[in-house]
């Protein structure tokens, strides 16, 4: 089966910044895939190389099997991109914008599909409104519609919910889920980790131009070797012996890190022995944010080792062993 | 419609929607030049024998309007799209760099021609003109607007801010047009300046265009057209090479 997206050994430098550091990635058709990472990790650069907005220095990028440089017409037809920035052309109305965008893809008489997208995105009432007059949320919907005019099998959304109100966010996710059910491959970047956890079946985490984790969402969650015990105590302070376990502490509520359920009893006993009463108790499963923080911290530690020349990764730019 | 056709249509629609600013305003400005200069200079200057100054002036003003508006169209469209970010709407679809080049330059040619025809029609209300060689006129107007449309595209691709396009216009396009013999025949200049004028490519466009009306010119129109076409080919080659590399558009 031809992967929807295939990225092989992609490097990209902007001056002295190594934005992409040998990225290898495959996304299968029909997947709902998440691309996470802190600002500056290379998410948008990676998306831009898929879209042909940025050219990789080396390596190859394919969309539905079409190389984005040598077969750019086919690769761009296969790809719909919702950009991160809220851009629009102030000269045109919503319908004109969508008709023109269709025309760029060589599509005539696309009005039936344009009407359908506008209907699904609640834009029908604004069809003849000038782009300038729309609210930010409406402009975001038009960007989604523009990315879909040519019915691309692969859809990339670069932080589509940044600065979007709750109602639109939910409507948008409902719509994107529907597209995925209809067989579209969806790639998503977001800062809202709970969104990624809820939507994406598989996730890649980027840091400083490298993929530092790539797995199914459930595997990533299971990979966490800890769970959290949230306690509300009175009568005495948290015993000092437990200080190393504290994740966060807002007296009298303390969240402690445990390695397994077997540790619950021991910790509770320590609290009681210190003379404290347990008023409330809650066990928390790690969420994607915990995984994210753990992986990013591990990477930082890894880089410190790298500086001490005990490298976990080959230095960026070095040939693959 | 093809991708190229759509981009051309969008570019035409863009200036048509603000026609008051993109067509009516330059026609009015040029008309003011005509009224003021012909009033001041009438009777003081005779060019090409018995030709009244106002008649001499009109073709120069028409061509100047054609050139400046062709430049303004592509340069402002591209730099505006780059700065607002909506340039991605044309970078994401499967448009080739040829499509991109041709659509922006054709739209500039159309804008230049529309403004030129407007200036010419309004001028005819004030000045009688012969139309000796309309095909030469057309050839120079097309070549001139295509050259300036291409220069505008180059400026738009290169510029990162509006003031850089404005600088391109103020320090290159305007001096070259004003010093190209719009308002005078270079025969009236001292020998040194006359010689220097021959290095100004705009001079050949204006001179050749004027030949289309009066059948007289400082330079053989075939040579002028040859120089204009050669300039156009050189600029086209440069612009296509930059677009192909994605210079300042695809990083």
Furnish the topology, listing elements before pairings.
The complex is a heterodimer of chains A (321) and B (251).
Chain A: E1 5-14, E2 17-27, E3 32-36, H1 43-51, E4 58-63, E5 66-67, H2 72-77, E6 79-82, H3 94-104, H4 111-120, H5 136-148, E7 154-158, H6 166-181, E8 185-189, H7 193-199, E9 202-207, E10 210-216, H8 217-223, E11 227-234, E12 246-250, E13 253-258, H9 263-273, E14 277-284, H10 288-307
Parallel strand pairs in A: 3-8, 3-9, 6-7, 7-8
Antiparallel strand pairs in A: 1-2, 1-4, 4-5, 9-10, 11-13, 11-14, 12-13
Chain B: H1 3-17, H2 19-41, H3 53-84, H4 88-91, H5 97-124, H6 134-158, H7 162-178, H8 191-197, H9 201-214, H10 221-245
Structure explained in plain terms:
The complex is a heterodimer of chains A (321) and B (251). Chain A has helices spanning 43-51, 72-77, 94-104, 111-120, 136-148, 166-181, 193-199, 217-223, 263-273, 288-307; strands at residues 5-14, 17-27, 32-36, 58-63, 66-67, 79-82, 154-158, 185-189, 202-207, 210-216, 227-234, 246-250, 253-258, 277-284. Chain A is an alpha/beta fold. Chain A folds into two domains: 5-221, P-loop containing nucleotide triphosphate hydrolases (Rossmann fold, 3-Layer(aba) Sandwich); 225-284. A six-stranded mixed beta sheet of chain A has the order 6-7-8-3-9-10, with helices on both faces. Chain A has a four-stranded antiparallel beta sheet with strand order 2-1-4-5. In chain A, a hairpin with a 2-residue loop joins strand 12 (246-250) and strand 13 (253-258). The longest helix of chain A is centred in the last third of the chain and has 20 residues, at 288-307. With 251 residues, chain B is mainly α. In chain B, 76% of the residues lie in helices and 0% in strands. The two termini of chain B are 29 Å apart. The A-B interface holds A 14, 48, 51-55, 72-74, 76-77, 79, 81, 83, 85, 87-92, 96, 100-106, 108, 146, 150 and B 1-3, 5-7, 9-10, 13-14, 17-18, 81, 84-86, 88-96, 246, 250-251.
């Amino acid at each position: 089966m031809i992967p929807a997206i295939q990225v092989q050994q992609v490097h990209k430098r902007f001056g002295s910044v190594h934005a992409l550091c040998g990225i290898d990635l495959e996304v299968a058709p029909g997947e709902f895939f998440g691309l996470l990472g802190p600002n500056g990790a290379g998410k948008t650069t990676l998306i831009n190389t898929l879209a042909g907005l940025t050219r990789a220095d080396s390596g190859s990028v394919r969309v539905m099997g079409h190389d984005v440089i040598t077969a750019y017409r086919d690769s761009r037809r296969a790809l719909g991109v919702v950009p991160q920035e809220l851009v629009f052309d102030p000269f045109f109305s919503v319908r004109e914008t969508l008709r023109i965008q269709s025309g760029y893809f060589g599509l005539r008489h696309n009005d039936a599909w344009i009407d359908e997208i506008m209907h699904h995105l609640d834009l029908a009432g604004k069809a003849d409104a000038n782009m300038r007059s729309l609210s930010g949320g409406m402009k975001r919907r038009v960007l989604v519609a523009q990315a879909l005019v040519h019915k691309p099998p692969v859809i990339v959304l670069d932080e589509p919910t940044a600065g979007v109100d709750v109602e639109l966010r939910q409507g948008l996710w409902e719509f994107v889920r529907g597209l995925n059910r209809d067989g579209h491959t969806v790639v998503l970047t977001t800062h809202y980790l709970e969104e990624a956890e809820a939507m994406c079946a598989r996730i890649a985490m980027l840091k400083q131009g490298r993929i530092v984790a790539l797995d199914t969402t459930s595997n990533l969650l299971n990979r966490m070797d800890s769970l959290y015990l949230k306690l509300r105590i009175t009568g005495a302070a948290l015993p000092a012996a437990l200080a190393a376990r504290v994740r966060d502490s807002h007296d009298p509520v303390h969240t402690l890190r445990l390695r397994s359920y077997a540790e619950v009893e021991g910790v509770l006993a320590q609290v009681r022995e210190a003379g404290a009463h347990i008023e409330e108790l809650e066990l928390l499963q790690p969420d994607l944010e915990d995984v994210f923080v753990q992986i990013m911290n591990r990477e930082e530690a890894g880089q410190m080792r790298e500086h001490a020349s005990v490298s976990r990764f080959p230095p960026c730019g070095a040939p693959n062993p | 419609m093809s991708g190229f056709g759509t981009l051309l249509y969008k570019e035409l629609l863009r200036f048509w929607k603000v026609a008051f600013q993109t067509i009516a305003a330059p026609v009015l400005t040029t008309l003011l030049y005509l009224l003021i200069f012909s009033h001041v200079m009438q009777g003081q200057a005779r060019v090409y024998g018995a030709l009244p100054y106002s008649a001499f002036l009109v073709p120069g003003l028409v061509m100047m309007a054609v050139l400046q508006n062709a430049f303004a169209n592509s340069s402002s469209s591209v730099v505006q799209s780059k700065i607002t970010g909506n340039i991605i709407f044309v970078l994401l679809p499967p448009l080739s760099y040829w499509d991109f080049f041709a659509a922006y330059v054709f739209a500039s040619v159309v804008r230049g021609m529309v403004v030129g025809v407007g200036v010419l029609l309004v001028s005819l209300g004030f000045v009688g003109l012969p139309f000796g060689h309309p095909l030469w006129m057309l050839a120079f107007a097309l070549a001139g607007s295509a050259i300036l449309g291409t220069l505008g595209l180059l400026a738009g691709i290169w510029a990162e801010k509006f003031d850089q396009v404005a600088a391109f216009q103020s320090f290159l396009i305007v001096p070259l047009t004003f010093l190209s013999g719009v308002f005078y025949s270079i025969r009236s200049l001292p020998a040194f300046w006359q010689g220097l004028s021959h290095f100004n490519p705009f001079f050949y466009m204006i001179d050749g265009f004027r030949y289309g009306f009066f059948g007289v010119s400082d330079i053989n129109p075939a040579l002028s057209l040859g120089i204009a076409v050669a300039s156009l080919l050189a600029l086209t080659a440069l612009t296509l090479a930059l677009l192909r590399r994605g210079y300042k558009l695809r990083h």
